[in-house]
Design brief:
Elements (H helix, E strand, L loop, with lengths): L1 E5 L20 E2 L2 E2 H10 L6 E6 L4 H9 L7 E5 L11 H11 L6 E5 L2 E3 L4 H8 L5 E7 L9 E5 L5 E6 L8 E9 L5 H8 L7 H11 L2 E5 L4 E3 L3 H12 L6
Length: 249
């Protein structure tokens, strides 16, 4: 399995912190956000290659990070060539770039580079492989009062997603899509169909919603804490959580 970490955003909501530093390399609990995520991916025996896709503006900081530390698995940093938020390819555009550039025809685990989890990923990928050739995503239960901030899913008794809503005004569920996805190699052609159809290449949720309509997608419920670091409030919350020493991340 290949792991692709999506780190090409410009994080304008966190300016000035991220004006000259990528969000994924902001410190939380004494180490970069990305380091927490990478440590959980590196131990997965099923992962044989790790790709980090970023932009031209932040390519060098990611290269320096990848070359530091004692890495058990090689990291390939990929430059998507963009320099500004207006030029960005989007998460799906960056994923397709990596798949085509390296001619990947393998199962792919995809991770948003600004997410933090309590849980490990082994159970998620075991769940996902059991549902191949269909895709799987990670979900968490969030308080109903903030569910409208996220991509929200409804599932049936077999955890098959029946509906997906991106930031609905009146959520019908409190199961939020996280930044973790698994795509079987048999299903990678759906990405080409999606891009070829002129659909939005920016938000992964738009692709998942489309995929629910043309195929089957399953949801794996993560337990424990989850942080989607998109603004100052969520960044401070993650910092407070780590400062208390209550996380096993």
């Amino acid at each position: 399995m290949k792991a692709v970490l999506l780190c090409a955003g410009y994080a304008t909501r966190l300016y000035p912190l991220t004006e000259n530093q990528p969000k994924a390399l902001l410190p939380v609990g004494g180490k970069p956000i990305l380091e927490h995520l990478f440590e959980k991916i590196e131990v997965l025996g099923s992962v044989d290659q790790i790709f980090i896709v970023t932009n031209d503006k932040f390519y060098t900081p990611f290269e320096k990070w990848a070359d530091g530390g004692n890495r058990r698995k090689k990291i390939q940093v990929v430059n998507d060539g963009t320099r500004t938020n207006d030029e960005r390819l989007g998460a799906i555009g960056d994923l397709v770039l990596v798949l085509k550039k390296f001619k990947i025809r393998d199962d792919v685990g995809v991770f948003a580079g600004d997410n933090l989890f309590d849980s490990d990923f082994e159970s998620f990928f075991s769940f996902a492989r059991g549902r191949r050739p269909h895709a799987s995503i990670g979900v968490v239960e969030v308080p109903k009062g903030i569910a409208s901030r996220y991509g929200i899913v409804r599932v049936d008794a077999e955890n098959r997603i029946t509906e997906f809503y991106e930031k609905p005004e009146k959520p019908l569920s409190n199961l939020a899509s996280t930044g973790v996805y698994w795509f079987a190699k048999e299903g990678l052609d759906f990405l080409d169909r999606y891009i070829g159809g002129g659909h939005n290449a920016d938000r992964p949720g738009d692709y998942v919603r489309w995929l629910v309509e043309v195929d089957q997608v399953f949801a794996y419920p993560f337990e424990g804490k989850w942080f989607d670091i998109g603004d100052f409030e969520s960044y401070r919350e993650a910092e407070r959580y780590f400062q208390k020493g209550s996380s096993t991340l």
